[in-house]
Amino acid sequence: MDKKVFFAALDRQRIETPSWGYSNCGTRFGSIPAPGQAKTLDEKLEDAAIVHRFTGICPSVALHIPWDTAPNGDWEAMKRRADQLGIRIGAINPNVFQDKRYCLGSACSPFADVRAMAITHMAQECTAIMRATGSDTLSLWFGDGTNYPGQDDMRARKRRMEAALKEVYAGLPANSRMLVEYKCFEPSFYHTDIQDWGSALLLCQKLGPKAQVLVDTGHHLSGCNIEHIVAILLDEGRLGGFHFNARKYADDDLTVGAINPYEMFLIYNELVAAELDSDAVASACAKQVAYMFDQSPTLKHRIEATIQSAVFVQEMYAKAVLVDRAALAKARAAGDVTSAEDVLKDAYNTDVRPMLAEWRTAKGLAAEPLKAYRVSGLKEKAIEERAKRHGAAAAGSGGGFQ
Ligand code: PSV
Ligand code: MN
Fold first, then answer.
1. Is the whole-model pTM more than 0.70?
2. How far is the CA of 135 from the centre of ligand 2 (A)?
3. Residue ranges of the domains in the chain?
4. Is the per-residue pLDDT at 297 higher than 90?
5. Residue 401: pLDDT above 50?
6. Atom 1, ligand 1: residue with shortest CA distance
7. Distance (Å, rounded) from C-alpha 354 to C-alpha 102?
8. Which of 23, 133, 352, 361 shows the smallest number of beta carbons within 10 Å?
9. Ligand 1, CB within 6 Å, residue ranges
């Protein structure tokens, strides 16, 4: 492949990092604080800026409300702070799952006052933060569902969700969109109101063109063919975004690539193929997908884990760009299954690291981001400064399931 074309493709890749990936993340059994981890939103922005400085592909950071707070509620100041650090604020994620009043659901709760509370949070509080920070994405995930058969009327809940999202949709700021994330189970263990891509797509189709499906790679049952889901959503023009992470069992929230790197390559392969497709809907859709991480780097240093993840997705994307599309089309047209698979394997087995190092050097970035960060002294500086600021014991809090 022509180097210019390859480098131009690398130039286009972007991936958003989550504010909650820099703070105290863990599992529902607890979390292990990492020294120097971010505690305030200002510190999370600082960390996100460091990841962008070393990788060059992570210019925005997603916020989770109210895990993230702005001092004196001044969100414009947080936007200015992000600008100053050379990044921007990306998706705003409302939290409609942690408050105890949501124990029977938020948008689908049987109680009208609880539904109203969830709608106000999404349609008013979070859209106001979008306006103040310049965010163009409202990213929705619901833990709504039931834990026991008979607990609630599943069809009534479906209609409550539709009604709630109509209100949220109507309150979206101009030029913004709404992403609807699905999850097969957890925290609801009997039924989940938005359990799969089909339920999310149905909702989006009812709402309008500004509503699109978000695929979190951890939110599928074992063996699920995620790249097929990606292909269907692209073809329908409704793939809005991703939350990348890795799963071995359920929603493990491991860092991306930890378990099945080939799956990530196959997902990127569908996206790159759609971008190049003559089909206008799929091609336009692929070009506006919002890529984000949503992972809990428990046991890893947060910034190191995020740099490692960014480098990994860059490698998988680069391999997907290298797929010989003409050879693939030829093999498919001849019904040559073995050669078609080998075209993908050839690209996947290409060692793209030297080419990525060259691309980074050309951009003025360190050839090996993780190594460069590790020798930069920034980690030690943050540990020292934050221990002074918060006290050595206050290793951080403010995010993740704890
Ligand atoms: C739920 O498991 C989820 O994937 C949603 O995106 C939440 O907003 C996020 O995790 C919280 O970490
Ligand atoms: Mn997610």
1. yes
2. 18
3. 10-321+369-395, 327-367
4. no
5. no
6. 141
7. 50
8. 361
9. 20, 93, 141, 181, 183, 216, 243, 251, 294
